[in-house]
């Protein structure tokens, strides 16, 4: 895998006895995840998906089709990645992938350094940026300016989390 990998989905629990698994897809249209085959896991194993039902897939891992429940259970919680350069280019100037924010320098409106964006997290209520010990909600109010070319973004931390 390349240096910049994008998390595209996660293998869930086994479904049935034939090696199928539930799949959580992070693509805009969940069924589009197979368009990115082959994917890779954290260890670099080649993973390919084939939908057998809505949200349920047959898995091929390093060229071997998973054919039983125990094989499927061994893959539960496997994260599925794709190289960033395999994703389509963004069309608008202010359009980007959340993963593109990792590595940007965060500064306040006054230009004071807050640190580097080390992760973009989403626990279900919206994305947050991890900047050092801070978790900043990724909203236009908290992050009014993003300059990908300049590798920086402006953060207005909410009063509750201001450094």
Description:
By secondary structure, this protein is mainly β. It folds into two domains: 5-86, Beta Barrel (Elongation Factor Tu (Ef-tu), domain 3); 98-156, Roll (SH3 type barrels). 3% of the residues lie in helices and 42% in strands. The protein contains one helix and 13 strands; from the N terminus they run ββββββαβββββββ. The strands form two sheets. Strands 1, 2, 3, 4, 5, 6 and 7 form a seven-stranded antiparallel beta sheet that branches. Strands 11-10-9-8-13-12 form a six-stranded mixed beta sheet, with no helix packed on it. A hairpin with a 2-residue loop joins strand 5 (56-61) and strand 6. The relative contact order is 0.15.
The helix count comes to 1
Helical amount among residues, as a percent range?
under 10%
Q: How many beta-strand runs? A: 13
**Global outline:** elongated
* CATH fold naming of the largest domain: Elongation Factor Tu (Ef-tu), domain 3
Strand content: 35-45%
| Biggest sheet features | 7 strands, antiparallel
Mean pLDDT, all residues: 91
CATH class of the largest domain: Mainly Beta
Along the chain, the helix and strand elements come as: EEEEEEHEEEEEEE
Gap between N and C termini, in Å? 36 Å
What is the name of the CATH architecture of the largest domain?
Beta Barrel
**Count of structural domains:** 2
**Low-pLDDT residue intervals, each spanning 5 or more residues:** none
Give the class from helix and strand content and strand pairing.
mainly beta
Cα-based radius of gyration, to the nearest Å: 19 Å
State the CATH superfamily name of the largest domain.
RimM
């Amino acid at each position: 895998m390349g240096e910049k990998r994008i998390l595209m989905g996660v293998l869930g629990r086994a479904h049935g006895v034939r090696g199928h698994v539930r799949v959580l897809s992070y693509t805009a249209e969940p069924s589009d995840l197979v368009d990115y085959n082959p994917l890779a896991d954290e260890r670099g194993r080649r993973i390919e998906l084939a939908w057998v039902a809505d949200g349920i897939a047959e898995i091929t891992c390093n060229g071997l089709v998973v054919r039983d429940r125990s094989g499927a259970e061994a893959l539960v919680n496997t994260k599925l990645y794709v190289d960033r350069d395999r994703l389509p280019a963004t069309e608008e100037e202010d359009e980007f992938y959340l993963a593109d924010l990792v590595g940007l320098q965060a500064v306040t409106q006054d230009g004071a350094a807050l640190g580097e964006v080390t992760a973009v997290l989403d626990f279900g209520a919206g994305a947050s940026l991890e900047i050092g010990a801070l978790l900043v909600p990724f909203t236009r109010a908290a992050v009014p300016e993003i300059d990908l070319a300049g590798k920086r973004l402006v953060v207005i931390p909410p009063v509750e989390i201001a450094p």
